[in-house]
Amino acid sequence: MLYGEENKAKLRSMAFGYGSKEKGSVIPKYRLNEESIDPDAAKALIENQLLDEGNSRLNMATFCQTYMEKQAVELMAETLDKNAIDKSEYPQTAELENRCVNILARLWNAPKNSDYLGTSTVGSSEACMLAGMAMKFRWRDKAKKRGFDYKAKNPNLVMSSAYQVCWEKFCVYWDVDLRVVPVTKNNMTLDLDTVMDYVDEYTIGIVGIMGTTYTGEYDDIKALDELVRKYNDEHQGGHELVIHIDGASGGMFTPFTEPDLLWDFRLDNVVSISTSGHKYGLTYPGVGWVVWRSKEYLPSELIFEVSYLGGQMPTMAINFSRSASQIVGQYYNFLRFGRQGYSHIHLKTQEIATLIADRIEHTGLFELYNEGSRMPIVCYKLKENAKYKDGTEVVWNLYDLSDRLRMHGWQVPAYSLPDGAEEVTVQRVVCRADLTFNLAEAFVMDFRECLDDLKKAHVLCNEEKTGSYGYTH
Ligand SMILES: Cc1ncc(COP(=O)(O)O)c(C=O)c1O
After folding, report:
1. 290 CB contacts (<8 Å, ≥6 apart)?
2. Whole-model pTM?
């Protein structure tokens, strides 16, 4: 907003209660108002501003939680005033965070008696940043010790091209080269046949993704661990390769739905795991977590002391002040649901995802990338030369379908796949705990109706686009 233009941008306070002092008054939008206004009036104005925004429950684009129980919300509202960093002032809150870290470390099968440690964060991005820094600092410390010329070139980090943008940020912020193993349209996960070609002595680690942002698939971490084991055996006393797991969405899903799947600290070379508590941890944004399998993998330079009950307590988060309410909300969920509750909720979500996938496949127009039987993500592309059952050719694209669904209130993004498969456009439906069977049925009905409408449509607006169309979470 340019100076001068602000006068044009005024809040018309027609929303105020009839007869209120503010009724009819005009308040600047981009400049602080001179006089205070009534709290109810302020609330009403803001509510009105937000009124026509998308309904978060119908937002199929996001992995982020859009529902929490009333009791959790009350608890979170009651604890908004607590600053999570003030461990001394709020020792019981610090204890709840500590419990959450322990619960996660156990959920991820940290070795018995290991000195694992971890922290809450604002989300997976901060958690990945910390894990990346730990890998970089440890790699450098070890390289220094063995007299390796670690300054000769930038260190690098290896992962599939289906990575989330937080890793690009990490690499830019920390002068690390991002070495990307391209996915293909037939394999949207880390290519195990070629991944080791990207590794050299400057590699700080490999990131395995449990639930890629694009299709929700899992990298094969067990097979990756085997490759890393072989590499480390061959380089004994030299460069050591480690794995970080980006479990933004899978980290709090898989332990409940596929407890026997080997992807976590049961694998020796997995040294750290991050997750978003606000995805399948079922807490409102923003809370994330990162856990290291042992102190050895978190260099001491990254640990800072804050005062705690007259003593000191280690912290490693990047952020300093933030409300403790998300941590409290996360702990509420752990306490309230327990293992059985989480399993029940996640399995039900999976069932709903497979139902939606089945209905979408049944139309005969789409090819599925993910049918929701692992992560509850339904991801599909239009079949080549797709035809309706009566032989009518499909002349629309997934961006048109996305627009149509939006007319019914559903937000379902269309986007192109990452490097290696960028010519493919897909659409993704992220199922979450609050997508009930009724809501899923309503979605399927609207979806079919959109397909019928598009068959008859005379005007189609969208050309195929490249890029993720803004949906990267
Ligand atoms: C695989 C992956 N990593 C990291 C992130 C970043 O998570 P957050 O939004 O919690 O920072 C996401 C977000 O969707 C993700 O899917």
Report:
1. 118, 119, 121, 127, 128, 130, 131, 272, 273, 274, 275
2. 0.91
